[in-house]
Amino acid sequence: MSSLTKMLSILDMFTVEAPTWSTEAICHHLGCSVPTGYRYLRELVGSGLLLRLGDGSYELGPRIIKLDYQLRSIDPLLRVGQPLMRELSAQTGCDSVMTRIFDDEIVDTHRESGPDGLHLAYGRGRPRPLFLGGAPKVILSTMPKGKLTRLYNKHAESIAAAGMGRSADEFIARLHETRKAGYYISKGELEADVGAIAVPILGQSALAVGALALVIPIRRLEFMNHEKLLELLREAASRISTEAAKSYAPQ
Questions:
Q1: Which of 56, 92, 136, 203 could, after both became Cys, cross-link 209 (CB 3.0–4.6 A)?
Q2: Which CATH number fits domain 75-248: 3.40.50.1820, 3.30.565.10, 3.30.450.40, 3.30.750.24?
Q3: DSSP state of 213
Q4: Which residues form the IclR-ED domain (predicted)?
Q5: Which 3 state secondary structure label does DSSP give 29?
Q6: What residue spans define the domains of the chain?
């Protein structure tokens, strides 16, 4: 691990469960000397990525907030998707959620709330389980066989626990069914009493760059018109894909 990578890995230590860290704890976690740890921290504080508190401990800094604002403002999927998701939530009365995959991490990047005011455990920026829920499945379903085989070999235990197969062939076959359907309906997979209907947001190829989902209490989902929800979801996902592609085009 390079010095830069090790320094930046400090940012991953700050979580909801552990929002502040002392210099000594950071150095112990990294396995580095105190002088090296101080050098890393000085750089991170100087760049605004960390903030030094009065008691000498550290928390995430103001630069993180600025970067989040910039990302919301310039990311094509977010810029195009936010008004369409507000419209989708107004039409359906459901929460609408955009989800992206980054390497092997699934992360919700935006959410528009419906009237139920759902309190979801996974919000913007918090990594989600890779194999639970509708959004991950529709994203994974568009991946080539070689990529899925590598994922299976790396995460076989988690895949089996999620009920997605006990062999690479079974895992790929399950996802092929989802790809053929073009959507996935989950019920209580990620959170009890909560379901979702998800469709892929396709990029310029057949690969998904994200997913769009309607998140609904299961008690409501059972009585809703799934075909109508899918029609609205697919229309919104298609518009997001089309408009975002224009932003990626060379100027």
A1: 203
A2: 3.30.450.40
A3: E
A4: 63-246
A5: helix
A6: 3-65, 75-248
Fold match between 3-65 and 75-248? no
- Maximum distance among all Cα pairs of the chain, rounded to whole angstroms: 62
Instruction: Tell me the two tokens of residue 194.
Output: 């909560």
The whole-number pLDDT of residue 249 equals 53
Check whether domain 3-65 has CATH 1.10.10.10, yes or no: yes
Q: Which residues pair with 194 in a beta bridge?
A: 217
pLDDT at 104: 86
Q: What is the mean pLDDT of residues 216-223?
A: 88
Token pair of 150 as six digits = 């590598």
Average pLDDT of the residues in 148-169:
95
Q: What is the DSSP letter of 206?
A: S
- Rounded to 5 degrees, φ, ψ at 125 are 90, -15
Identify the helix (H) or strand (E) that includes residue 200: strand 194-202
